[in-house]
Amino acid sequence: MDSSKPLTDIHHTLLLCMYDHFVSCDSLTCLFPWCCPQLRLYLPTKATKEEAITHLKQWIASSFVEANPVPGISLQNFIKFDQHIEFDCAPREGQAWVSLCMMGKFSKARLVKPQSPFATESNQYWVLKRPLNDNMVAAWEVYLQLAQLKNLSSVTPLLWAARLTDSTRDFIVCSALEGVCLHEYLQCNEPLTSDFVVKIMMKLSVALGHLQTMNIVYLNWTTKNILVQKDLRGDLSVKLINFDASTIVGQVMDMSALPVHLLPPEVLCRKPVTLSSDLWGMGCVLYELTTLRPVWHEKRHLPIPELQDMMKTYHHPRPPDVHWSLRPLYTLCWEVDPSKRVDVVRFYILLSQY
């Protein structure tokens, strides 16, 4: 395609069809040769029709020039979280697993059935997810760090992760199918007591403590990103399940990875994240547990400057009267200055005193 010549309506239609396929494709090995990992580095997942046409036209005109690997990033291509795994590269569709369905209408996760010998009694189904946002370099580093955790009981049952090319911006993560998300659990159960809320928050504090030993900042603090499951004794376990927007301490966060109303003030100011950034998120989960709705959800369309002013002056929404005793915890988490927030150890101790 000659980029100097104007496009016809047929060209427009073709390029838009290619773009629509690109944003919805989650195949490890797509049948279309142009739907390649390098294109995912180049093409934004959210674009107007005009932007999509321009980007694809420029990409095709460049003759599929290979993207250079990102400097300073580990060249490890395959991560084993479960050391019982006997394979050392991403198992291929059709040979090792078959696709069953998407996990939800707006989900990028796919439920698949592993074939023998990849399937085990405890892992009869896999969930495959390909993260797609501008934070993928940091996200891959997060998964490398998670592989070093000695205690993975507080995170989703991860099995393996694999880069699809030499670029860390394009990879897939596999976990075992387990439990339900906390959001669904809340919809199907009676209103929570303050005692139950405290128990959940204590378990989340333990999970956060594990992440902080690896300098991981989770950031994805909503009940939809928390897994719950009852064990044989009836006790509820809690696990973090979505690390797509997570990063390492000291990084400047990509604000497109999360809804702005859930971001800590330092992220809105484009300052580096710290370990205390997740304590702001703990306050967000606490609010959602006590109200059954995300914090500041009705303010999510505000411009960022207005949202920042609201956080400084309004401080935080009022908790329901039935959970009024938890109000001091909100205050400790929702300090606009990160250095003034409570640390996770102190937060856990305060929870244990309720």
TrEMBL record:
Residues 95-354 form the Protein kinase domain. GO terms for molecular function: ATP binding; protein serine/threonine kinase activity. InterPro entries: Kinase-like_dom_sf, Prot_kinase_dom, Ser-Thr/Tyr_kinase_cat_dom, Ser_Thr_kinase. PROSITE patterns: PROTEIN_KINASE_DOM. It holds the Pfam family PK_Tyr_Ser-Thr. The keyword Transferase applies. Keywords: Kinase, Transferase. It comes from the Eukaryota. SUPFAM superfamilies: Protein kinase-like (PK-like). Signal peptide: none annotated. GO terms for cellular component: cytoplasm. PANTHER family: MITOGEN-ACTIVATED KINASE KINASE KINASE (PTHR24361), NUCLEAR RECEPTOR-BINDING PROTEIN-RELATED (PTHR24361:SF613). This is Serine/threonine-protein kinase Nek8.
